[in-house]
Amino acid sequence: MRIGITCYPTFGGSGVLASELGRQLSKKHSVHFICYAQPFRLEGTDIPFHKVDVLAYPLFKFPPYTLALASKMLEVVQEEDLDILHVHYAVPHSTSAYLAKKLLKDSIKVVTTLHGTDVQLVGLDPSYYSITKFSIEQADGVSAVSESLKNSTMQKFNIEKHMRVIYNFVDPNRYWTEDHEKKIVTHMSNFREVKRIPDVIDTFCKISALIPAELYLVGDGPEIPLAEEMVKKCKIQDRTTFFGNIRSIEEILARTDVFLLPSGQESFGLAALEAMASSAAVIATNVGGLPEVIDHEETGFLCALGDTQTMAEYAVELLRDESYRKEIGRKARKKVEERFTPGVIVPQYEAFYESVLTES
C-alpha cells in the first residue's frame, strides 16, 4: 500500500502515535508524511516528508492552514500515487483530507483517527462542532484510540457511522529499567489545564512529607508557570526538576519508580503506557480510556478525580515497599508486551486500510 499520513508534528500523543505507526508501516509499505514540520520521532529516518507551506499574506489575519494542507495532500497523492490518506486528529486534518478527496474526484480513500481533545474539547466548541461532525462522517473509515473515546464521540456528535477501536502502542524494546538509589516520581504531559498540574504538585507534596523522593516534571505548556509557583510555595524546589520537552524520554522513565497522571480527561493515556513499558508503577485518575489501559491494583492504580490524598497514599506504599513496586511494574510491562505492541496493533491498522480500500 501507498499511505499518506498527516499529524501534528509535536510532542503530544497523537503525533507520537502517528510517527511510530508510520515507522512500523514503512517496513512493508510506502509511507509519506504530510505536515507543516517533520515529526520529531521521524528524525534520522528516510521516511519521505512533505512540508506544508502556508502563504503569509497581510490580508490573512490567520493563515489558512486547512486549505494549504488540502492543496499539499492533492499534490502528494498525485505525485506519489497514494492509495489512502490517514489523518490523525479530526480538525483540521480530516477536513483538509475531505477537500483533497473531492478535488481528486473521490479517487483517494480517507481514514481518520480520533485521539481525544480533537473531539472532546476543540470539536465541541460551537465554532468547530458542525465541521468536525461533517468531516468525521465523510471519512471512509474512522478509528478511535479507546472504547471510551468512541462512545463519547458517537454520543456527543450523534454519529451512527461505524467506528473501530484501535489502541495506541509502544515498542517495548525502546524502554528499560535502571537500578538507582533515589526515589523518583515523574509526571509527563503538555502541561495544560486538563492535565491538572496542581494535583501533581499537591500529590508530591504529600509524598515528600512522608518519604524522601524527587519529582521529575517532563514537558512544556501553559501551566509551567503555575507549576513553578506551586513548587516554590510547597518548598520542594530542591527536590523538583523541570526537564521541558525532551526527545528521548526513555532515560527518565527508566529511572522512574512512580508515574503520576491525575488528568481530568485522557482518551487513552499514551504517557501511562510508556511508563508501564518502563516497569514504572502508574497512579492515574479513573477517567476516559485509562481503565482500558490500567488494571487497578494489578498493573497500576486508579483514583477518583482530584483525590490527591489517595494517590499519595498509593505512592508512599509503593516507594516504601520495593518488592511490591517491582511486582506492579513487572505486571504492567507484561500487559504492554501482550496487548499494546506494534506486532499486535499495526496489523489492525493494515486490516483497517484493506477493508476501506475494498469497500465500494
Largest sheet: 7 strands, parallel
Question: How many individual domains?
Answer: 2
Query: In what range is the share of β-strand residues?
Result: 15-25%
Number of helices: 14
Q: Order of strands across the biggest sheet?
A: 3-2-1-4-5-6-7
Give helix and strand order, one letter per element, not per position: EHEEHEHEHHEHEEHEHEHEHEHEHHH
The backbone outline, from C-alpha atoms, is globular
**CATH arch. level architecture of the largest domain:** 3-Layer(aba) Sandwich
Average per-residue pLDDT, rounded, comes to 95
Q: Could you characterize what this model shows?
A:
The protein has 360 residues and is α/β, with parallel strands linked by helices. It has 14 helices and 13 strands. The chain has a seven-stranded parallel sheet with strand order 3-2-1-4-5-6-7, sandwiched between helices. A six-stranded parallel sheet has the order 10-9-8-11-12-13, with helices on both faces. β8 (184-188), α7 (197-208) and β9 (214-218) form a beta-alpha-beta unit. α2 packs across α3. The longest helix has 18 residues, at 322-339. It starts with a strand and ends with a helix.
Quick gist of this model?
The chain has 360 residues and is an alpha/beta fold. 43% of the residues lie in helices and 16% in strands.
Helix-strand blueprint:
Elements: E1 2-6, H1 13-25, E2 30-35, E3 49-51, H2 65-80, E4 84-88, H3 90-103, E5 109-114, H4 117-122, H5 129-138, E6 141-144, H6 147-156, E7 164-165, E8 184-188, H7 197-208, E9 214-218, H8 224-233, E10 240-244, H9 250-254, E11 258-261, H10 270-277, E12 281-285, H11 290-293, E13 301-303, H12 308-320, H13 322-339, H14 342-358
Parallel strand pairs: 1-2, 1-4, 2-3, 4-5, 5-6, 6-7, 8-9, 8-11, 9-10, 11-12, 12-13
Helix pairs in contact: 2-3, 3-5, 7-8, 7-12
